[in-house]
Each structure stands twice: as C-alpha cells, then as structure tokens.
Amino acid sequence: MRLHASMTTPTSADSAASTSDSSSEAPTSKPQRSIRSYVVRAGRMGTGQQKALAELSPRFVLPYQAQAQDWAASFGRQAPLVLEIGFGMGAATAQIAALRPDTDFVGVEVHTPGVGALLKRIGEEGLSNLRIIQHDAVQVLEHMVQPGSLAGVHVFFPDPWHKKKHNKRRLIQPPLVALLASRLAPGGVLHCATDWQPYAEQMLEVLSAEGQLQNTAEGYAPRPDYRPLTKFEARGLKLGHGVWDLVFKKV
Prior knowledge:
Elements lengths: L7 E2 L2 H8 L15 E2 L10 H14 L10 H5 L5 E5 L5 H9 L4 E5 L3 H14 L4 E4 L3 H8 L5 E7 L17 H10 E11 L2 H13 L3 E3 L15 H8 L5 E7 L1
Parallel strand pairs: 3-4, 3-6, 4-5, 6-7
Antiparallel strand pairs: 1-2, 7-9, 8-9
C-alpha cells in the first residue's frame, strides 16, 4: 500500500519568512504557500479500528502542540527516540517497535484509518514504546522536536508523485532534509526507502548534498534487518521491481 507522507514541504519562501525581522514591513505580495506532499483522504474503518481509537487514543495519541514535547514524560522513561513520517496502516511500524523494545518510537500520520489500525496493533501486541501524533509532520518537527534530540528518522515508501509536474510534491527535498538533519543527534540515522527508481535517484542526490549527513554506504544501502518487508514490497520484488534503501548518518 502506497504511503502518503504526513508532511507539508517547506519552501525557500518559508525559510526566508522564518528568518525575517518581525519588525520589518509586511510584504505587499501574497506569500508563497507551502507545498503539501500528501492528500488528506477519507477511508473506511472497521469496528476494531474505531474501538481502538476510542479506547487507546488518550494514552497513545499525543496532541499536537506548538512547543517542545517532554518525551521522557510521554513514554515514562528516558530512551533513544525515533520518529517515523507517514506510517500508513502501521504494520511495519509496529513490527519495528516490537523488535526494538529499548527504543521509543513516535509515528506521525494524518490519516485517521491508519491511526486506528496502528492503535489496534498497539493494543493487540502490548506495545508500550510507541506513540502517535496525527498532524502535519513539518509542524511537529519544527515545534515539538528539539534540535539534536532524535536517534533516528524513518521515511518508508513515501508517495513518489510519478508525474513530472507533481515531482515538487515529493517529500524528500533540500529544506526538509536540512530540517530532519537538524533534529538528529550526532550519529543519528535518517533512513529512507522507496520502490520508485527516479525517486531513489532524487533522494540520493538530495541527501548526499546535505552537509550535516554522511552516507553509510556507497550509494544505496542494504535493507537493515530492523526494516521488515511489507506485503506491498514483497509483491513488487516477486514481480522484479526494485527497492532502494538510503541510510545516512548525522555527522
């Protein structure tokens, strides 16, 4: 299943606006709006997902707030923190959290059916090291995540926006990568994966150009053991489709 990343891509205009003097005069022209890399869509939810939303949201869904989050208080412990952007229906997210109980994970997703599906898995598997934020990921990163606080960032199979005219909507763009890198602690890892070769090539170019990051491989990386094969990915591999992992480390 194709994941639509939960992020509004900041543009150069946004970056300029964030650093401008608040005392300067307001621009006469209309400011450029950020480009969304996702489309909010409705979806069906089963009774299990609805029940999980009602019963588990108070504990496992963190409300968005425009201030730094106290992650130790949220999880009840101090542990390495990994943030995932756009977890879809949450199957891989739950598997990774189960495999790495000593690490805390926060998944950011805008689609309610996906949130309900992951909450259902959390309840069924008793996962205590996983939290969810249902909000735009750029705002989460800018306001809730302090610089240098993340052990890792996962971006698995974001929407490739195949058509050339839509390439600007792709999640992995230089301003976004700079923001992600700023939130990583030294040695922290940014792990991206895609099954669309042109997007993989763009990812490699953009990530390699970010001075805060260093590639851990010569080009594309082997799939790390902690990232499970999704049904979508396994089906594609059987059909001869490629999958590209990119693993970069904060220097």
